[in-house]
Amino acid sequence: MDKNPPDSTGPVHVPFGHIVANEKWRGSQLALEMQGKIKLVFEDGLTVVDFYLSSRSCILYITEADLVAGNGYRKRLVRVRNSSNLQGIVVVEKTQMSEQYFPAIQKFTVLDLGMVLLPVANQTEASCLIIQLVQEQTKEPRKNPFLRKKRAVLSEPFLLRTVQQIPGVGKVKAPLLLQKFPSIQQLSNASIQELESVVGQVVAQQIHAFFTQSR
């Protein structure tokens, strides 16, 4: 029987236009929202990965409960990041309850691991996002912005979305910052003085604190 060993990080065979989903999601709101719009195949033994979009790309889904419970999710992220087989996208439930924990996972995922992080409000929003990812992949896999090389700069819309999550930034200041600091790495290394020239003193200090405070 050709079954993936427990904790396997691939490769997993994913039929074209399908998603291979971790058995734990069977019957969940997320799976129910996707059914009828995309074909789901449930698989046992996917203890690290939540959803495979293809044999080389996957989604790690971090729920509100995972965030509130502590840093247990980090091991899964590191395993996928270190896997030569997989490119992982991290989808995180950013809710009123989990918002205070979001900066820590954002820094860990984007800065430390160089992975794409996409916040969602709930599983309904997540289902739309995952369907969009599969549709993008079935169109032109090579051009899919989510599946560039692991250390690549995030594609612009998602980089913008990530920067908007930094305290004090928001939708107006994020594009201004990215004009001057086109990657998260450059932004995180900017001095308060450099940031001040774009967003003013108060926000500059907030951004600097966000990137330098200890986790």
From TrEMBL:
CDD domains on file: XPF_nuclease_FAAP24
Limits of the Fanconi anemia core complex-associated protein 24 pseudonuclease domain: 12-135
UniProt entry keywords in alphabetical sequence: DNA damage, DNA repair, DNA-binding, Nucleus
Annotated localization: Nucleus
Gene assigned in the entry: FAAP24
Gene3D superfamilies with a match to the protein in the record: 3.40.50.10130, 5' to 3' exonuclease, C-terminal subdomain (1.10.150.20)
One biological process term in Gene Ontology: interstrand cross-link repair
Organism: Cavia porcellus
Keyword hit for 4Fe-4S: no
Coiled coil (residue ranges): none
Major site of localization recorded for this protein: nucleus
InterPro entries tied to this protein: DisA/LigA_HHH, FAAP24, PND, RuvA_2-like
Subunit structure: Belongs to the multisubunit FA complex composed of FANCA, FANCB, FANCC, FANCE, FANCF, FANCG, FANCL/PHF9, FANCM and FAAP24. Interacts with FANCM.
Descriptive protein name: Fanconi anemia core complex-associated protein 24
Cellular component, GO, one term: Fanconi anaemia nuclear complex
The keyword DNA damage is assigned to this record: yes
Function noted in UniProt: Plays a role in DNA repair through recruitment of the FA core complex to damaged DNA. Regulates FANCD2 monoubiquitination upon DNA damage. Induces chromosomal instability as well as hypersensitivity to DNA cross-linking agents, when repressed. Targets FANCM/FAAP24 complex to the DNA, preferentially to single strand DNA.
Superkingdom, natural source: Eukaryota
Pfam families, A to Z: HHH_2, PND
A GO MF label: chromatin binding
Annotated ranges, domain DisA/LigA helix-hairpin-helix motif: 166-214
